[in-house]
Please model this.
Amino acid sequence: MDQRDFGLLEKHMSYDPELKSLWEDHVLYKNQVEKLENKTFRTPIEERTLKQLKKQKLEAKTRLMEILDSLRVSSE
Model:
């Protein structure tokens, strides 16, 4: 994401609850992934959790980018 994307996020999050929720989810998943990735040893359960979190993070970011793309087009 570039500065323009962050600008669009800031501008539209206040009245678009889906956009706000997707961004919050993305940040939450990012933090949880980083926490698990920084562990020197992960249990099999943590490995599965990490895989699931990465999948959720990607899904949230994909939807977020779709919305941002449509906002970019409408603002041009």
Q: What stands out?
A: The helical segments are 3-13, 17-37, 44-75. Residues 3-75 form one domain. The chain has one domain: 3-75. Residues 44-75 form the longest helix (32 residues).
